[in-house]
Design goal:
11% helix; elongated
Length: 418
């Protein structure tokens, strides 16, 4: 149970005490002084808020005085004396919540004394929340959207806070970069936060997001995200493609055919006119033995079955666009050189990121003892698929993500020899 839930239970308990209206010195007989709350009592407040309470007080013998207490001390300017001892009075008081009250349940006690010395009290609880966040994080407008891994990424983030700052952190991939954490501030309400990061090959490709997390002394947390795409110098030996979108056979947003050498993706209605360039086709297999994402080449019977006349015509093509009717069908062979399921590790994330030469990619394919297989079925995210095209190009595909239905799509990164 959290703190706020405990506070609410406390409210209920305190309210029950306040409504009992028993004298402390009469053995439990009914109290003659009646105290009734006539205003709506807030259950919670923030530091800086002003809360107000109003009461109707009745006592036949006359009311002598009333006051509001907090922590057994009378709240300033809340004590009232009634020299004429009226039988009924309207009593009210205000309180401005202090910053040091945050996280506490305040128990206001209204004490009333009759002209004959009889006393009674009424308790009103208030839970004080942490002060509202007043934090502003300004990332400079000229912060790079793209940065080479050969350069150090650095700029200053300007942070201001209405409350004292407690910490500033930088988070990447859900991990805190501890060298950038700041907990000591020359000015606790304003800081020029120096951000810097030296990327490596693992960062190249999809945008990398950094999250700046700023916490104040009251525990308020405000964040701001910054994304950058890291690049590395172009290789004379290989081409690299990141974030390539392809669709399954019933996807209408992305194409199903890949020209591996150029990174071009073609839809079903574009198959016939681009058949000389197409090296790889993708589809979603509904076969119970080989379900999910599959990579194939245009030569395979699977490609002809998945992209037959009926299917391509429904997607805006004509009979020529059926794979079996293409004038040229390029043969591509595949090896799954690592798998999230069987523990093979011929290619890992680090291996893939570091690949930069033709010889490295060729060696992965040619030196692998894994058998060639077309199609490659039941492919999962983080699988690495090596391939060899009809034009003698070697490549490695990294599966970034894939949907699990035939209307879905996949995202891949890949590298291919020039």
């Amino acid at each position: 149970m959290n703190k706020f839930a405990y506070a609410l239970l406390g409210m209920a308990a305190l309210t029950g005490v306040a409504c009992s209206e028993k004298n402390a010195d009469d053995g439990g007989s009914e109290v003659k002084i009646k105290i009734s709350l006539t205003s709506e009592a807030p259950e919670t407040a923030y530091p800086g808020d002003k809360v107000s309470y109003s009461f109707a007080i009745e006592y036949e013998a006359g009311i002598a005085e009333a006051a509001a207490e907090l922590n057994n001390e009378i709240i300033e300017e809340t004590a009232e004396a009634y020299p004429d001892a009226p039988a009924t009075v309207s009593y009210s008081f205000d309180y401005t919540v202090k910053s040091e009250d945050a996280g506490q349940t305040l128990d206001f006690v209204v004490r009333v004394k009759g002209a004959d010395g009889t006393e009674n009290s009424y308790d009103v609880p208030l839970y004080v929340l942490a002060a509202k966040a007043d934090i502003d994080i300004v990332i400079p407008s000229d912060a790079p959207q793209e940065c080479s891994i050969e350069d150090n990424l650095a700029f200053t983030v300007h942070i201001t806070s209405g409350n004292d700052l407690k910490s500033v952190k930088t988070i990447k991939d859900n991990e805190e970069i501890t060298s950038l954490t700041m907990t000591v501030f020359e000015n606790p309400k304003e800081v020029a936060y120096p951000f810097s990061y030296q990327a490596d090959v693992l960062d190249v490709g999809s945008p990398v997001t950094f999250r700046f997390e700023v916490m104040d002394a009251n525990g308020n947390l405000v964040t701001a995200d910054y994304s950058v795409t890291f690049t590395k110098p172009a290789s004379d030996e290989i081409s690299e493609y990141f974030g390539v979108n392809m669709g399954y056979q019933n996807n209408t947003d992305y194409g199903q055919y890949l020209d591996a050498e150029t990174g071009s993706v073609f839809g079903m209605s574009e198959g016939y006119e681009n058949c000389e360039e197409i090296d790889i086709v993708v589809y979603y297999s509904g076969n119970s033995k080989t379900p999910g994402l599959a990579f194939a080449d245009p030569v395979s019977s699977n490609a002809s079955t998945m992209f037959k006349e009926e299917t391509v015509i429904a997607k805006g093509g004509d009979s020529n666009d059926a794979v079996s009717n293409w004038l040229m069908r390029n043969k591509t062979t595949f090896k799954r050189v690592t798998s999230v399921r069987d523990g093979q590790a011929e290619v890992t994330e680090a291996t893939f990121a570091a690949l930069s030469t033709k010889a490295e990619i060729e060696a992965i394919y040619n030196d692998s003892a894994i058998a060639e297989a077309t199609p490659q079925t039941t492919v999962q995210p983080n699988d690495y698929i090596a391939f060899y095209t009809a034009t003698g190009k070697y490549g490695i595909i990294k599966v970034v993500s894939r949907d699990a239905n035939n209307k879905g799509a996949i995202v891949i990164d890949y590298k291919i020899t020039k």
